[in-house]
Amino acid sequence: MRVRGGLGDRVMLLAVLLLLGLGSVTVFSSSTTISHDLSGSSTRLILNHLVKVALGLGLLVILSRIDYRVIQRLALPLVVSSLVLLALTLVPDFPLAVSANGATRWIRVGSMVIQPAELGKLSLVVYIASILSHGEGRIRNYRRGFVPVLTLLGIFVVFLMMQPNFGGVLSLGLLTGTLLFVGGARISHLLTSGVATMPAVAFVSFQKPHVVRRIHSFLDPSADPFGASFQVHQSLVAFGSGGLFGVGPGAGRQSEYFLPDCHTDFAFAVLGEEFGLLGTASVVALFAVVIWRGLAIARDARNPFGRHLAVGLTSMIGVAAALNMTVALGMAPTAGLPLPFVSYGGSAMLVNLGGVGLLLSIARRSRPAHRRMVRG
User: Would you tell me which of 24, 149, 220, 307 could form a disulfide with 301, CB atoms 3.0–4.6 Å apart?
Assistant: First the structure.
């Protein structure tokens, strides 16, 4: 397999680096107050963020240099590792489990805290891409192809709902559905499976009071502006305050404890306040570039596994970005998902930058341009 020089797709890499730059500025300006109150240093959180970015970029370089086909052999170990880590978060009084806001979603490994759900997304993408690489015949076969994928998704969903992590459930469901649809699964299988599982998911969801409050606040944001709707209300205030050009980096007010989780789940709102409509439009445009180049890499991949892996990794980033931005704009219920490359975080940053590294690896081993034109 011919390997090109460099890191692969330079346009995608540039878009990701610009998102990381905007994200770092936003995290710094939105975290100084909470960072000072938590640690006594206004720069503690931004320094932690920059360390994660550096580690993620290192992982990106490493994965861009290896042959992505090696990952196919790791599909099952990745899935098993993800499920084991998810199971550990559910063990009562497990000493390494970390809880916050009524959920136990994290595992402490040394000085780092990882979120197994993020590794689960990557492992599911690799596993499904491996199955799809055997051709449409397998995934269109209900028992041999479709059921194994659906069963694995179901196991992940059960673990995530027990944490609880309904944003992760929504993200995995959309990601799996996209991969199966693009991979050639029968529409009838997708529809019947979705219709069959929705009542069960809805029943379990409505047993959780905070989920009910989030859905009610989404349907009627004015019903409880100082309670369940407070985050979305303040997020919209941030966007409105930003206007066209924004109030300027560091001049936003929402980071002064007006908008909870402003450096993580609602970093997009802080960016909108400080950089205005032009800033948010630029972020949307940069994600559009990442998705465009990811799909172009999938188109030019030399083998089926590379093609489906590229679609899956691109969808992983695109779905997370779309969910985060729609939540911040009040167009979807609060889901608790970070904005890729922009929000403060460790596991998501490493997984997303690792995914970009794999995309660049596929790009480095894609078909040359002149051969694409001849075949075109």
Answer: 307
